[in-house]
Fold this sequence. Notes:
This protein is mainly α. It has five helices and no strands.
Amino acid sequence: MKYYKIASWFLALSMSIFGVLKFIHPFKTWYSVQISQSELGSLAYPLGIAGEIMVGLTLLICLNFKHKISTSTYKLITGISFFAIIMMMLTGIYVHLHPNVSADVLPLKIKPPYIPAFFLILAACTMLFTVKKDDI
């Protein structure tokens, strides 16, 4: 249970913060260059930011008001949120591995997708824990 709480709060806060950081220089510039160089299309820019902020806020709301939400609703909403994080991190891995995206515009200036892979694994493990555990 302790793992679940720490992982859920970490993902909720991280996703919210990373989404908001994309409005601030130099993160805004890096993110726009990543999107354009990876050829994801112009719609990916606002969807990526909105997705990170919405998933983060959704998890924060669920975690703060867990006692007011039925267990099945809580598991459904958090499960969908963790799945959305997995999809976003798969996109992040694609961006890191895309040959046109230079390391200069990536987090920590490293080309291997360590950060998105870490978040993907954490979200997947937490989602599995959510699905299998009866007493969340």
